Structures are given as C-alpha cells and as structure tokens.
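pasting Condensation domain-containing protein for the record, 68 residues
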Amino acid sequence: MVGRHEALRATFAELDGYPVQLVLPAWAPALMRLEMDASADDAAIAAAARTRCAGRSRSIESRRCARA
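structre below
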C-alpha cells in the first residue's frame, strides 16, 4: 500500500526558506504488535493501541511520516 500511495511516503522540508514536499521511495513499514487476550473486544484493542502510540510524536520533517 505504501508503494501505491504517495501521500503515505510524503514528507516536508525547507528549501531556501520555503516548505517543499518530498515523496520518498516505498519502504516496508514496521508494524506494531499488541499481545491481547482472545476475549478482548474491539474497544479494548483500540484503547491498547492508543495507549501504546500516545507518547510517540512525529515531525513533519521526519524521513518517514506514515504509521501503519
């Protein structure tokens, strides 16, 4: 999917004082793995994912902005 959609590979930089968009080559995103009990419902899974991602920030100048 990352290879087909440029928006997932886009990042931003500054060139001569102006913002420019860069589209990076495709890469295989690292997937987050959550260990959940088989009885966990969708809300519990979503809450666990939010908690895990809450402290992670991304800069728009980061080389890879997409999270999969």
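The helical segments are 42-54.
DSSP finds one helix and two strands in the chain.
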